[in-house]
Amino acid sequence: MQNNSIPNSVLLYGCPTEKARNASFYVWTADDKKANDFNEYLVEVRKHPTRLPLHKLYNIISTIITLTKYIKSMHSSGLLNLDIKPTNLLFCYNSEFGVPTSNVSLFNIDTIYPMSGFMPKASDIDGYRAPETWKGKSENRSDIYSIGVLLFNAIIICDEIVGGLFKEEYYFRIDQLINSSALLSAINLNSFFYSIISRMLKKCLARRVQQRYSCCEELIDDLSETKTILLSALANHSK
């Protein structure tokens, strides 16, 4: 994916839109932000979580799959992102929130670092960084943690969680929060589906690095399984 969408020669400098026209994921620079970021979409989801919940959850899962595949490509090249959050993902959606989830863009690549190089201590306060990054100890599972926070933020919609942002204190309440999420409870799927959602959140968001998914491929497998279930539910819903 990386070689098709982000030439190695420009990976650390941004990729102009015309070079990524046929790509599923590309990096853009600050003067190239011409669409909506993922956070804007999630704000709308939070306003009306029970309106077309299957479609919205399908869009969210599909978007995160596209992101995770790109992060997998970075990791395969020996690079870490370390700045995964909704405001750094961009795509266009229409008035009905139809999202082209196969074409997602990544904004701001200032935080890309080689896995074997110097790792600065995290300095952000937005809650998406893995705990170990605050000590300057980052690895591929640090990015997986950030993807987990993004997933939590997108699908756990409860009045008690302002903005939906994950906090460590929520970890042992993940199953309860899944059951009370306005978005997840609105789709009414079988228990197997919710067990996969629970597994993904727990294996992404574990404080101990060793308890997380070991690589993006493992997370993609679980995300793809949820996407397949949602696709089937959408097909049945349209009959």
What does this structure look like?
The protein has a single domain (2-237), classed as Transferase(Phosphotransferase), domain 1. With 239 residues, it is of the alpha+beta class. The termini are far apart. Helix 5 crosses helix 7. The strands form 2 sheets. It has a 4-stranded mixed sheet with strand order 1-5-4-2. The chain has 8 helices and 6 strands; from the N terminus they run αββααββββααααα.
> What are the secondary-structure elements, in order, as H or E?
HEEHHEEEEHHHHH
Which parts are unreliable, with pLDDT below 50 for 5 consecutive residues or more? 1-26, 28-32
Strand order of the largest sheet: 1-5-4-2
CATH architectural designation: Orthogonal Bundle
User: Could you give me the name of the CATH homologous superfamily?
Assistant: Transferase(Phosphotransferase) domain 1
End-to-end distance: 35 Å
The tally of strands reads 6
Largest sheet: 4 strands, mixed
CATH fold annotation: Transferase(Phosphotransferase), domain 1
Mean residue pLDDT? 80
Helix fraction bin = 40-55%
Radius of gyration: 17 Å
Structural category is alpha+beta
Instruction: Give the domain tally.
Output: 1
**What spatial form do the alpha-carbon principal axes imply?**
globular
Number of helices: 8
